[in-house]
Write a structure and sequence with these properties.
The protein is an alpha/beta fold and 189 residues long. The protein is built from seven helices and eleven strands. It has a single domain, classed as 3-Layer(aba) Sandwich (Rossmann fold). The radius of gyration is 16 Å and the shape is globular.
């Protein structure tokens, strides 16, 4: 597995990504971490295309779920309140245990589940869900997106092979901002 570095001009591209979420664009570096991550989750809904079979009806909601201890508090609801994506409302759900999880379009794995992440990701490997986490090996274990901190800024990496397995189409605008992880390439030494 190799990593591609984010391209130069990352800050300019971030402005484009967050143009749809002006409140985040105005945040300073002192903004709470999970307010920023909640805004990222909302923006991921704008730049991800799920298979049509992922929705029961044309106006079914996009489900954003948190699995495990919830680090967001009210920030996630605040990030999506009153917003729609392609005519679909966004609904937030929380699940304490993996066996409780119902189909979700975005599934955020809490750090409280860190030691179980590889097994849990295998369970969701072929489900059309954008899996998002923060643990060091999240994308290497088959997760689609991992948040990380670089130079005091929240960044993300995308495992494009995992996205393809989940039958998700990620916009080139989103991929342009990410550090890309590919399972199909040999590991860097």
């Amino acid at each position: 597995m190799t990593f591609s570095r984010a391209r130069p001009g990352l800050n300019a591209a971030a402005v484009v990504l967050f143009a749809v979420c002006p409140a985040v664009a105005q945040e300073t570096s002192s903004a709470p971490e999970y307010r920023i991550k909640a805004a990222f989750l909302y923006n991921f809904t704008l730049y991800t295309e799920w298979p049509s079979t992922s929705f029961a009806k044309a106006d079914s909601p996009i489900i954003v779920a948190v699995l495990g201890d919830d680090p967001f508090g009210a920030e996630l609801e605040a990030a999506v309140r009153g917003k729609t994506v392609r005519g679909r409302p966004i609904e937030v759900r929380r699940y304490g245990q993996p066996e409780d999880v119902e189909p979700s379009h975005i599934l955020f794995f809490s750090n409280s589940l860190a030691k179980h992440v590889p097994q849990l990701l295998r369970k969701f490997a072929n489900v059309p869900s954008l899996t998002v986490g923060e643990t060091e090996d999240f994308t290497r274990s088959g997760g689609v997106i991992r948040f990380f901190v670089d130079e005091n800024k929240i960044r993300f990496e995308v495992n494009t092979d995992a996205a393809q397995r989940a039958r998700l189409k990620l916009s080139s605008k989103l991929l342009h901002l990410a550090r890309i992880v590919r399972e199909s390439e040999p590991k860097e030494r």
